[in-house]
Amino acid sequence: MATRGKIAAFPDGNSFVAYNDSVDNLVIGNSEGLVKVFNIHEPDLEPTSIDILENLTSLSNHGAKLLITTTGGELELIDLKSSESKGSIYRSGLPLRDSLFINEGKRVLCGGDDNKLVVIDLENGNNTSSVSLSDQFLSVAYNYTGELLAVGLSSGDVQLYSVTNEQPNLIHTIPNVLVSKIHTSMDKIDYNEEHEDELVSTRPQWTSDGRYLLVPTAVNKISVFDRSNWAEPIKSFDSEAKIIDFRLSPTSDHLAVLDFDGVVRLFDFDSKKTLREIELDLDGKFPLNLAWKDTQLFVGTTDGSILTFKDVVDSATTREINRLFMGEADESDGEDSNTEELGQDEEENEEEAPDVKSELSKPGYRLHAEDSLVIDQDEDDMPDYSNDRRKRHKPNGYSAPRQTTARSFGTVIEGEIKPYSPGSTPWNSENKGSATVERRYLSMNSIGYSWVVKSSSGTDGMSQQTVSVTFFDRGLHKDYHFVDYNGYDLCSINEKGALFASSGYSSKSALDNGRIYYRKHDSEQDAWERRIPLLRGEYITSVCVTNSHLLANMSDESYITVATNFGYVRFYNLHGLCVNLLKMTPVVTMISSSNSVLFIINQVAANLYSYSLVDMNQDYKFIQQDVLLPLKKHADSPDIPLIKGIFFNEYNDPCIIPGIDDTLLILQSWREANNARWVPILNCHNAVTDYGNDNRKGWKCWPLGVYDDQLNCLILKNNHEHPGFPLPIPIVLNIELPILIKDKSKKKKNDILEEELGDSDAEEPEVKQDDPEENFLRSRTFGSLAFDSHNDDNTEETEEGQIEERLNEYMALFDRSLLKLFGESCKDQRLNKALSVAKLMKTDKALMAASKISERMQFMNLATKIGELREKLLNEAEEVDEEEDD
């Protein structure tokens, strides 16, 4: 039986209740303009009082901060640690109805009666932006594991928005599901009489793992929608009267529903079983809202008091552990039979020597909750996932693992290689009450990004990891997510699918083999998972899914590559069949071009790296092999990554941005043996900060890719080293070879940054996009890259026309820049320099123009020498024609 209590917080007025886990206190906000903060562990202590605005409509928490919305249209921010108001951070002409924190507390959302969703950036001077809504705003709920919003509208629709980027993006609408409600209160709210209809609940709520959305419906039900399919609810909970509020327990095991009859019904969320009904004694007044703290329940009321109930549910439960690690009770026998149909190969794989019996005895092995994956039939040591097959004996002829150290099998190098995927970031932790939430990007490129949220409960030690995949072009694919039970820490994304891997890095034990999982973006029907045989001390360092659109005798085929710290590189087709295996020095990372050329970075010794280029079109031929790479770790700043960006450009040339100097390098002439060289084409730090401009001093660049002489990237402000949430909108920076010193005495706007970032007031040093010397060198460099690509046998016919067009553009820029350099040299009367420039000209048309400039400026001797250059060029052209005729 629940223990009842009452907190006479206020003599009257509407009292909303919330529990703030960060300060471990009960927060009660009253419509008369006061917040009281109670320590429920020491009930004899006087509460802390904080003056607030009157006529509040909602409370919301994050960390030690509290948001309050009012009918006066103001959004007030309260600091619970200092017990003071920070004042109004947003004002609206109409009442505000709800608010909350998003993106790790960096931004605030609010909405009211003016048909828009307002976004306030707390890290950038409370700058505001808004999203227009199709109807009056009612409420909003936030899914922090998926960075999703559920916005309730007065029409009854619930709209789902993604907030991974700066601008909320509408991804789906659930139509006509809520009670249709119009707020009429404009000042003081009288819920007991005039505004009783405004008590009807229209606020959705997410489960703590972000997988399900609970929505109060027009027929006194709470419908539960699965995030992976919004078409129909998967289940519902019935109420005998209109619903005022409902709340999930902190672990989402139990659901409390509060109705107009003054009854709180407690449900088991999984089974829908009614556990308890609690009748409230309110003397004709109404309950307002619910709040949980562990097994305690609090009820706000319209008479100023707060009702409390202790031990409303059992404090000890194993349901969450079972759901996370042991498999759900309703898994069908059909799934078991499908797996058994594939059979198990009884032959022992020499590479798979780890103790399978010990592996099978571990609790918790299962696949993704929503996936019915195909298990590879050649994996005889794959653990069974049903309870019946968990008792299976080891295969016949199995022998104990060899007790061999890593030094017997792999090259041991001082300086450990950490698993790395291009665009990945370290973990970022955030405390949400008794739970710890960690986030990181697994991978990021110009197509999209994958990110993972891991939540751990401090009370029961449970943890869960969710992986999401998001695309910059929302029309390319639909975003998706899954619950990850294998701890994936590596990822590779191309336009068709995503590859995930659990590296085994944390344990480095032969008993914990790594795993890979591949799925297509638009369908998981052919998704598969398999284990990678690893030696003791070995782990996966990099994975890659190739972007192939052209392969000899195998059109539109791609491959999956998996590399380890011992230098083993395995190649699989998209169905999980291993097709090749190589051994090299330890692999740091690898990426693939659009025509299946694999760029691999290896570690040769401590802080010494090399690269290789493998053409999978030509039977895994090494185009370049074990060439030293200009790459070093930053000695003074270990937090700066070894590699900040790695990708191919549109000509399939490898590009890399080392963390030590933040300069974009491109590999030129790599198709010729012993002729490849790295060319620096952009200092990213200078480009982003406009060479140390004070207004952009803390800005940093996060690269995504190179295309059309431009770097696609994110701009990180406020000295952030890695992208967080929300993700900035990608912009492009013009390539500019680092050969010039900028003149800070002259001021000019950087058109690209100004347009993309709206920074029109900042004064900046001159950016000489038309500098003839830089134009000359850039046209020469990129013209050479385009020419090499044009002669590549793997280049498709549809691309050849585009490359020829680009070559003509570079040739025109080449001539223009040299003529401008020639004219400037003549103007400065540096005739020897002018002649040296003329010698670089490759066309008679350019030399003729230079000759006319010389004659016009009365430099007749220079004009004569240029005439000799024209004659020499003409003779060379005639000799070439004669050789071709022969």
From TrEMBL:
Region listing for Disordered, in residue ranges: 325-405, 755-775
Subcellular location: Nucleus
Highest taxon, organism lineage: Eukaryota
Entry-linked InterPro entries: WD40/YVTN_repeat-like_dom_sf, WD40_repeat_dom_sf, WDHD1/CFT4_beta-prop_2nd, WDHD1/CFT4_hel
Keywords: Nucleus, Repeat, WD repeat
GO cellular component terms given for this protein: nuclear replication fork
Entry-linked SUPFAM superfamilies: WD40 repeat-like (SSF50978)
Location of the WDHD1/CFT4 helical bundle domain: 772-874
Keyword Manganese: no
Acidic residues biased stretches: 328-353, 755-764
Domain WDHD1/CFT4 second beta-propeller: 418-739
Gene Ontology biological-process annotations: DNA repair; DNA-templated DNA replication; mitotic cell cycle
GO molecular function, one term: chromatin binding
Chief subcellular location: nucleus
Protein name: DNA polymerase alpha binding protein
Species assigned in the record: Scheffersomyces stipitis (strain ATCC 58785 / CBS 6054 / NBRC 10063 / NRRL Y-11545)
